[in-house]
Amino acid sequence: MRDANYQKDKKTESGLKMLKRSPTAVIGLVIVLIVIFCGIFAPWISPYDPIKTDLYSRLKAPDKDHWLGTDKLGRDVLSRIIWGARVSLKVGVISVGIGMIIGVIIGLIGGYFGGITEKAIFSLVDLMLSVPPLLLALAIVATLGPGIGPVMTAVGISLIPIFARVARGSVLTVKEQNYVVSARALGASHLDIMLRHILPNILTPVIVMATLYCAFAIIMEAALSFLGIGIQPPEPTWGTILSHGQQHMRTAAWISTFSGLAITITVLGFNLLGDGLRDLMDPNMRHVIQTK
Predict the structure, then answer these.
(1) Domains along the chain?
(2) Tens-place pLDDT, residues 27-58
(3) How would DSSP label each residue in 206-272?
(4) 197: CB partners within 8 A, 6+ apart
């Protein structure tokens, strides 16, 4: 028991040491945690109601009462950005979850069985990849209608082929390993081999991709809302704030500036975290980090 606890402590210490030696992962993690904090505690930390209008304070420049100014309806920009973090995180996590789960299942089945099954599945995947993700999402939202549900569905579907190809590539490598061949020789079922021997060993690239594509999903949601076909007012989203702010760029540039910064910093945080996780999970890079 003591040996098990000792090994566990050593692994934790090693993980923390590697994390400290990967500044990109630390910076990205800090940014993401701040955004998550804002999203979770938005009702308590936002200074004003994000949808309450005050025409007497419309287009007010940043001051001590409104740190980031107000928009054309007198709504506090800081409060709307804080609440927008909740929407962006929800869309990012759920849509990536949709794309990852369905994509991994497709990639796992196609990569494992190969042959006609793989050709049939990945012909459809290649067809989806031939359409730009934003265009595909636009078509889906146009069909389903605006709203947070259709946006998450649209972004999730647009990510399915990306995760499917990543999973397939990993499966093609893992299924030739000795432990998989041995399990097959011992009579293990296809389902057992896929779930117990292959799936756990292809999760590393999938997790890294999920982190990186959370940033992509946030950008997609902002783009759809900016175009007016995503999440509809009065729900505060960064894309909607940016869209409304562009009408007043000459007189109230702070509206678009701060909402754009929120998107940029959040996307940067997820990208840095994803890059850091890739380095930490890659055995070759992990060896380099440990020897620094």
Answers:
(1) 21-48+65-291 (1.10.3720.10)
(2) 999 999 999 999 999 999 999 999 998 888 89
(3) HHHHHHHHHHHHHHHHHHHHHTTSSSPTTS--HHHHHHHHGGGTTT-THHHHHHHHHHHHHHHHHHH
(4) 174, 179, 180, 183, 188
Return the pLDDT at 290.
Answer: 47
Report pTM: 0.86
Map residue 60 onto helix, strand or coil. Answer: coil
CA-to-CA distance for 242 and 223, rounded, in angstroms?
Answer: 10
Given a contact cutoff of 8 angstroms between Cβ atoms, the answer to whether 89 and 40 are in contact is no
Chain-centre distance for alpha carbon 217? 5
What string of DSSP letters covers 67-87? TT-B-TT--BHHHHHHHHHHH
Query: 234 preceded by cis ω (within 30°)?
Result: yes
- Return the closest-CA partner of residue 189 out of 277, 112, 243: 112
Rg (CA), the chain: 23
- Locate all alpha helices (DSSP H) within 114-132, ordered by sequence: 115-129
CA gap 183, 193 in Å, rounded = 7
> Mean per-residue pLDDT for 217-236?
89
Point out which residues pair with 163 in neighbouring strands: none
Distances (CA, A) of 47 to 80, 82, 209: 10, 10, 35
Non-local CB neighbours of 269 within 8 Å, separated by 6+ positions:
27, 28, 29, 30, 31, 32, 34, 35, 215
The dihedral built from the CA positions of residue 141, 142, 143 and 144, taken in this order, carries a sign that is: positive
60-103 pLDDT tens trace = 999 998 999 999 899 999 999 999 999 999 999 999 999 999 99
